[in-house]
């Protein structure tokens, strides 16, 4: 085995940020479970293991100038581009180490500090067992008491029927050496052909056929990174809890802040079954069976610190949230059938959204202004955070570093680098952003824009100067008239609806 331990390194990973990894999001999830978490408004140290091209550490460092952030990845190309972006954006509080997990776990005591949060996303079940053990050793040595771990992974039972498909795919690839992209395409063609031949495995497992048909529509980058690593192995929530127990960690909660609310939307039988289970990890395992879950993002704690009910109530009352999308985008919660619960929308969600249309507000303020109980406001806001309509606020952040980073991201996206987020200082997090969004933010922050059609003209000029096509939902729009219409529509939405939100969030 080479230095990559079976991890495919010839196709770079997409440059993305995951909002559940933001300290304020984790603190909100912990608070919902009556637990204390590191305060994102105070100095803290944060490490991301397997940080890819570093957008996570870059956005967190830019939106928390008082924190020290470190990214670890063994791919030199990832580390080099992350370091270049940090330097360009002038972010002194982020650094990147080109270490494998084994190397990171074995670093001498004084080589890196101890952290308050260690996070890993899309890593744990994509690397082999030796690397998983090294990750746990790193956490054991480097996490402060009271510190949190964010860990996401492919889980069972959701993946159970699909696992033989992945095995078939890598067995075919192993016997057809070449670039990973070519291997994965070859293997997919081979498997799709088998699918057409109605082999018994596919016939008995209709979900597998559906999974393969969907996989066939995904891009090569996704296919390589989802299926081609030889260490790939989904696990049960109990496996992760057992492994992390070795580093003195206990399960705190799912990273989804709306988990307690969405749980109440389960069918009655499942709800009853869960209610009877005391052990939190066993309850999660049964919940995974209840929804046939295939992906989890969880928070673990080294030394839980429960809050009293009074302290939780106080913290929830003062917790501020901010809208991250225009008012018109917000709606109501989903019904168990997947539609919209219009009653809940009218009596609960719309009044909250109306208050937030004026800008960020504390949950207590929302309760006072709407006359809705704090408990109901908390539940609704948890759902709204889950839908990414609003996010918790980190008070007192200097917006300058995030604005510098966004300018650099806008420059790079116009050279074709696939960046899909921008930094949002008020919430200590990132927002999804297309290249048009990043370019528009940059134009609005530097230039005097008269109106939406002026913005559209400037956007077109930027794209033209950079030689970039107009792209929508990942697809290039070839027809010039259609491209022009798309830019005009997007400019109108950005100028009229999104820019006021960006202003509230400190992006402008
Ligand atoms: C699927 S990517 C996830 C990147 C990023 N966390 C994200 O979600 O966008 C996994 C990352 O882990 C890194 N990685 C894989 N095996 C590793 C190892 N043994 N040591 C250090 N990094 C590793 C890869 O280079 C890659 O950047």
Strand order of the largest sheet: 3-2-1-4-5-7-6
Strand content is: 5-15%
- Ligands, ions, cofactors: S-adenosylmethionine
Average predicted local confidence, pLDDT: 94
The name of the CATH architecture of the largest domain is 3-Layer(aba) Sandwich
Just give the CATH class of the largest domain. Alpha Beta
CATH topology heading of the largest domain = Rossmann fold
Distance between the termini: 49 Å
User: Helix amount, in percent?
Assistant: 40-55%
The main sheet comes to: 7 strands, mixed
CATH superfamily of the largest domain: Vaccinia Virus protein VP39
Oligomer: single chain
Category from helices, strands and their pairing: alpha/beta
- Give the C-alpha Rg: 23 Å
List the total number of helices.
22
Verbal overview:
The protein has helices spanning 23-32, 55-63, 76-89, 101-105, 129-142, 163-174, 180-196, 200-204, 206-215, 220-227, 237-245, 259-263, 268-275, 280-291, 309-318, 342-356, 363-370, 374-386, 400-413, 435-446, 452-466, 480-504; strands at 45-49, 68-72, 94-97, 115-120, 143-154, 250-254, 295-301, 320-323, 361-362, 390-392, 421-424, 429-432, 471-472, 475-476. The protein has 508 residues and is α/β, with parallel strands linked by helices. The chain folds into 4 domains: 19-157 and 234-301, 3-Layer(aba) Sandwich (Rossmann fold); 161-227; 320-392; 400-504, no CATH class. The strands form 4 sheets. A 7-stranded mixed β-sheet has the order 3-2-1-4-5-7-6. Helix 7 (180-196) packs across helix 10. Residues 5, 7, 13, 16, 50-52, 73-75, 78, 100-101, 121-123, 126-127, 131, 225 line the site of S-adenosylmethionine.
């Amino acid at each position: 085995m080479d230095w990559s331990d079976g991890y495919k390194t010839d196709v770079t990973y997409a440059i993305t940020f995951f909002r559940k990894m933001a300290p304020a999001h984790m603190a909100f999830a912990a608070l919902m479970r009556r637990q204390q978490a590191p305060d994102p408004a105070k100095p803290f140290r944060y490490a991301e293991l397997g940080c890819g091209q570093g957008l996570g550490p870059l956005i967190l460092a830019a939106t928390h100038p008082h924190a020290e952030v470190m990214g670890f990845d063994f791919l030199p190309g990832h580390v080099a581009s992350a370091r270049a972006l940090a330097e360009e954006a002038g972010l002194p509080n982020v650094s990147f180490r080109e270490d494998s997990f084994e190397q990171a776990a074995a670093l001498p005591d004084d080589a890196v500090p101890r952290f308050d949060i260690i996070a890993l996303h899309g890593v744990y079940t994509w690397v082999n067992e030796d690397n998983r053990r090294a990750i746990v050793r790193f956490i054991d040595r480097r996490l402060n008491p009271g510190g949190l771990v964010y860990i996401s992974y492919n889980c069972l039972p959701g993946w159970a029927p699909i696992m033989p498909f992945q095995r078939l795919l890598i067995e075919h690839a192993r016997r057809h050496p070449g670039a990973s992209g070519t291997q994965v395409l070859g293997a997919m063609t081979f498997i799709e052909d088998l699918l057409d031949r109605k082999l018994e495995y596919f016939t008995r497992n209709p979900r597998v056929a559906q999974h393969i048909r969907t996989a066939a529509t995904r891009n090569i980058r996704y296919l390589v990174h989802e299926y081609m690593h030889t260490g790939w192995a989904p696990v049960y929530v109990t496996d992760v809890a057992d492994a992390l127990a070795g580093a003195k960690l206990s399960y705190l909660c799912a990273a989804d802040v709306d988990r307690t609310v969405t749980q109440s939307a389960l069918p009655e039988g499942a709800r009853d079954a869960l209610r009877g289970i005391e052990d939190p990890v066993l309850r999660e395992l049964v919940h995974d069976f209840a929804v046939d879950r295939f992906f989890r993002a969880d928070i673990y704690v080294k030394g839980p610190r429960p809050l009293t009910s009074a302290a939780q109530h106080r913290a929830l009352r003062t917790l501020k949230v901010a809208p991250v999308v225009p008012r018109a985008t917000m709606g109501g919660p989903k019904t168990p059938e997947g539609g919209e619960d219009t009653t809940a929308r009218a009596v609960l969600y719309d009044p909250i959204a109306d208050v937030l249309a004026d800008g960020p507000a504390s949950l207590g303020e929302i309760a006072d202004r709407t006359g809705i109980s704090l408990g109901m406001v908390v539940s609704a806001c948890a759902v709204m955070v889950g839908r990414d309509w609003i996010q918790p606020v980190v008070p007192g952040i200097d917006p300058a570093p995030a604005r510098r980073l966004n300018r650099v991201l806008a420059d790079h996206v116009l050279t074709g680098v696939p960046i899909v987020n921008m930094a949002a200082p008020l919430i200590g997090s990132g927002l999804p952003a297309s290249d048009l969004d990043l370019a528009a933010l940059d134009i609005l922050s530097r230039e005097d824009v008269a109106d939406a059609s002026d913005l559209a003209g400037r956007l077109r000029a930027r794209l033209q100067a950079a030689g970039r096509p107009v792209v929508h939902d990942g697809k290039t729009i070839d027809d010039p008239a259609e491209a022009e219409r798309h830019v005009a529509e997007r400019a109108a939405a950005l100028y009229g609806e999104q820019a006021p939100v960006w202003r509230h969030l400190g992006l402008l």
